[in-house]
Design goal:
three-stranded antiparallel beta sheet, about 80% helix, mainly alpha, Growth Hormone, Chain: A, 2 domains, 27 helices
């Protein structure tokens, strides 16, 4: 690997740290939501909103981050993201009430939305065509690394709460575990800001702003002189061909010439979220608790989710420029459908029955006395059982002891649930996770790239927010079986679209793709 390639790789890795912060910030809530719901006495819909609020703001941030980056530059906007992540982490960790907690989580959504758009955009604009898939996937790799580290961090902090060490007691980790889970994000956010100081401005953006001398200087850091001049000419020619066209607007995105690429972007953006990935990442411990393994074990299995996501994302990076985007998408989406159906089957086979022996093993004496009336009763699904507990104990107490009461009553194969979740995450990580953002960075012409990626990113985040918002309500109302079956049906519908509509884009320059995809 020569010096130029090493430099491109180093810059791509630094910029992709925005993905790490996005992944950490988004998934750290998976360990927090149970404790927040109890501390702030939240309903299922309030819990859903506390989780999805970050994504709601991220969706709005995506709509403006692209145009703002076209005006002020990719690098400048990423620096602002680093500052926002830091403030959000500290503020949400110290929030004294639910309203302030929401406000600081929403602030973090600005950083999530902007970095999710801008990091892959910047990397795509500096990467050579033969390496673009791999380098843009650095961002997805960092997202899943952030998710994995968040799962590890959550479990470590939860475990520290059981320690008698004096420093643990003095820091109040046991009674404030969820606050520490949120607050540690400030450390990588500060490091990201200082890392961006060594990142040059995007050469394609500099050319757009007619800063040709600086653009040439930057390109020479990435390529040899002949390739730098060739890239400059290609970008200038592309911009000049559009100079007499009207200014980019949302309406322009829906003109016939862009119909195919916008349709692909919107469908893939919806498919990535409607199949339930952020239900798993944001509620992993809650899902595993539904299989009756208990709180501590559910946090451990959540770590397995993160590790699986990381391993298969790396595998996707190794394969994406060899096999191509479309084969990975088809294989992964088919697998998502299969494993979601497996999850639905696993939860559908569960039954719930409290025996006198199990009741006597409950941790709380008062709780034992209250649920003794359920001894010998059987329930065919989780909804019936949880509704009976709410009626008997009240919503607040039922939620407080839900994990323990499910563990005591459930009869099912929890390994089936673990296999289903791990298989689903593996299929997502090798397909929709990294491939979607690579496609977004390739499909749209330079003149409207910032606006187009913002639009499809907004739709992606809006669907994600909706999925996150209703998930706790779905578990309580229609149950785990139907929730996961619906995700599986969406995956099979998406598979048809992938096979019939999506083109292969590997190995082609951004300008070549623009010439062939726009009709």
């Amino acid at each position: 690997m020569n010096k130029k390639t090493l430099f491109i790789t180093r810059i791509a890795l630094i910029v992709a740290l925005g993905g790490f912060l996005m992944g950490f910030d988004a998934s750290v809530i998976s360990g927090v939501n149970k404790f927040v719901q109890i501390d702030f006495n939240l309903t299922d819909l309030e819990l859903g909103f506390s989780v999805s609020s970050l994504t709601i703001i991220a969706a709005l941030a995506m709509m403006v981050s692209g145009p703002l980056s076209d005006r002020f530059g990719r690098r400048s906007m990423l620096k602002i993201c680093a500052i926002v992540f830091t403030i959000s982490a500290v503020g949400s960790a110290m929030a004294p009430n639910f309203i302030l907690f929401l406000i600081f989580r929403m602030l973090g959504g600005i950083g999530v939305g902007a970095s999710l758009i801008l990091a892959p955009m910047y990397i795509a604009e500096i990467a050579p065509p033969e390496q673009r898939g791999k380098l843009v996937s650095f961002n997805q790799l960092n997202i899943v690394l952030g998710i994995t580290v968040a799962f590890f961090s959550n479990y470590y902090i939860l475990s520290l709460g059981d320690s008698n060490a004096s420093w643990v007691q003095s820091l109040g980790i046991a009674e404030n575990n969820w606050r520490w889970m949120l607050g540690v994000e400030a450390l990588p956010a500060v490091l990201y800001f200082f890392g961006l100081l060594s990142v040059p401005r995007s050469p394609r953006w500099l050319i757009m702003k007619d800063k040709l001398a600086e653009a040439k200087t930057v390109l020479l850091k990435f390529y040899e002189e002949d390739q730098a001049e060739k890239d400059m000419k290609a970008v200038i020619d592309s911009l000049e061909s559009d100079q007499n066209k009207e200014k980019s607007s949302v309406a322009e995105l829906f003109k016939p010439a862009l119909r195919l690429v916008i349709t692909i972007g919107l469908v893939v953006g919806v498919l990535q979220q409607i199949t339930g990935i952020n239900s798993v990442f944001f509620y992993a411990p809650m899902i595993f608790e539904q299989s009756g393994i208990g709180t501590d074990a559910s946090f451990i299995q959540a770590i397995l989710v993160g590790v699986t996501n990381l391993v298969f994302t790396i595998l996707a990076m190794l394969l994406i420029d060899k096999l191509g985007r479309k084969p990975l998408l088809a294989f992964g989406v088919a697998g998502i459908g299969v494993f979601m159906v497996l999850l639905a089957y696993g939860f559908n086979s569960a039954t719930y029955s409290l025996t006198s022996e199990k009741i006597n093993q409950l941790s709380n004496t008062e709780l034992r006395d209250e649920v003794i009336v359920l001894a010998g009763k059987s329930f065919e699904n989780d909804v019936q059982y949880k509704n009976e507990l709410k009626s008997l104990l009240g919503p607040e107490k039922a939620k407080l002891y839900e994990s323990e009461l499910i563990t005591a009553a459930i009869s099912m194969n929890p390994m089936l649930i673990l296999i289903g979740i791990i298989g689903f995450v593996a299929c997502f990580a090798i397909s929709l996770g990294p491939v979607m953002w690579v496609l977004f960075s390739e499909l749209f012409p330079l003149k409207v790239r910032g606006l187009a990626i913002s639009l499809v990113g907004f739709v992606n985040s809006a669907v994600s927010a909706g999925v996150q918002f209703v998930f706790p309500w779905e578990l309580s109302t229609i149950g785990s079986t139907w929730t996961f079956l619906i995700y599986g049906l969406f995956a099979f519908a998406g598979l048809i679209f992938v096979i019939r509509v999506i083109p292969e884009t590997k190995g082609k320059s951004l300008e070549e793709l623009e010439a062939t995809l726009l009709k």
